[in-house]
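User: My advisor asked me to double-check a structure prediction for TolC family protein before group meeting. I don't want to rely on an old file, so could you generate it fresh from this sequence?
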Amino acid sequence: MIMQRLFQYIILFFLVQWSANAQTLTLEQAIQLALENNYDIKIAKNNLKIDERNNTIGNSGMLPIVNANITNNNTINNINLTQANGDERELEGVRNFNLNYGVGLDWTIFDGFRMFARKEQLKTLEEQGKAELKLAILTKVGDVYATYFDLVQQQLQIAALDTAIVVSKERLRTAENRYSIGKASKLEVLNAKVDLNTDISVQLKQQELLKQTKIRLNEILARDLAIEFQVTNAITIDEQLNFEELQTNIENQNPQLQAQVLAKRVAELQLKQTKANRYPNVQINTAYNFTRSESPFGFITQSYGRGFVYGFTASVPVFNGFNQNRNEKVAQLEVENAQFQLEQQKMNISAQLNSAYASFQTNLQLIKVEEANLEIARENLDITLAKFKIGTITTIEFRTAQQNYLDASVRYANAQYLAKLTEINLKELAGSLSLE
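Assistant: Sure, here is a fresh prediction for TolC family protein from the sequence you gave:
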């Protein structure tokens, strides 16, 4: 058919022209660039590194604390002395010197098992950081998918507009030829020019939207916003998505659910640490010190010493103004809130899954309908164009057929894009979106 061949030529010309001016950016390349450059992913990676570095036995309070100390005190005094026999002495600039230095160790050996709960909490926070990193990656990769295929469907629309413009130019040429031999009026030529200019105007607006979307993708990829590129010209849909399989994957892989489960565990461990305040706290301490002092007056004018000091400190909480009970009740409420948030998250994700899957099934049907409509519109335009050349139909009928073809092309591209968006959303919810 004439229109089908024409459309294929337009697509080929479109791709050749773009290839001459810009390199093709594949979806895989875009994903890789996002994983390497995107700022949200970089921040999430650094947050995970912070959690990993915090997860140590020292940070949990299990290790002793060793300090080296030094104290040096000096005094200079003017002294008036009255002795027992009544003699008086006056001294100026009398200096006293006192130096202490050494190494001390303090070690909490029992704190009601708080340190063990704290260590487990640090480990849980690290796992939560991993889930949050996975969520950040899936979110940004999902943005890459959505923006990339938005560009694809926009390119398809521009190709359809290019076809419409070629047809409008052919119509104008035919009208001018008919007018020159007296078979058409000037009005037919003017109408053909107006419709051609309308098609060009729509194309310019679509090209502007395409450029804006490219800037958006460059922003997600965290690279120069002015980089010019083209994307592939096809949208493939995974029609084999299974609802039960998606639901199972969500329960096992969804990073939002995983993070919320871990948040509940963190709250439980915080409650455990709060309850540890009911138990005794035992610390051992030891040190090795050196001392030296000098004083011009007194029975001892100079002294030196060194020695080992050791002991322990134990404290037992008895009463703290009922704050312990209050703190435990608050921590218990935090655990309950975490449980409520987990249940709310499960319901929210389940609602998203059901809604997205219903949209996905509808969009698959729309693709088939719009594909059939496009074939009909293409055939209709093909016949209309042939009839218009021999003058058996009016310009209004021709423009209607042309507009129907353009609308069908746009609806078909849009149906493919919407189906792809719901597919991306479903895989993102299931934590199974490809990162390669």
